[in-house]
Amino acid sequence: MNQSATPNPLSETDTGMARVLEDLIDVLITRGHIQFTDLPDAAQAKLLERRQTRANLTHRLNLLPDEKDNGLL
What is the span of the domain harbouring residue 31? Predict the structure, then answer.
């Protein structure tokens, strides 16, 4: 049997674990335990890219205006 066809239980949880780590980093930064600049440059770049991607997706998925937007898109 081909090993690539066998599901890897760890890889199936990678996406969820990545989100947990992002949230943990945000909590540590918010509480002042670490500074964003304490992270290696590569980690900073990846976190910034994911934050930007998430913001873009949130903006794209917000199809209905909030009441505070006075109905304007």
Answer: 10-62
Residues 14-33: pLDDT tens digits? Answer: 989 999 999 999 999 999 99
- The answer to whether residue 69 sits within a structural domain is no
The tally of domains found in the chain comes to 1
First to last CA, the chain: 54
Say how many C-beta atoms besides its own lie within 10 A of residue 40's C-beta: 8
Token look-up 């770049």 returns 45
When computed from its CA atoms, the radius of gyration of the chain, rounded to whole angstroms, is 18
Helix axes 14-30, 41-61, angle to 10 degrees: 100
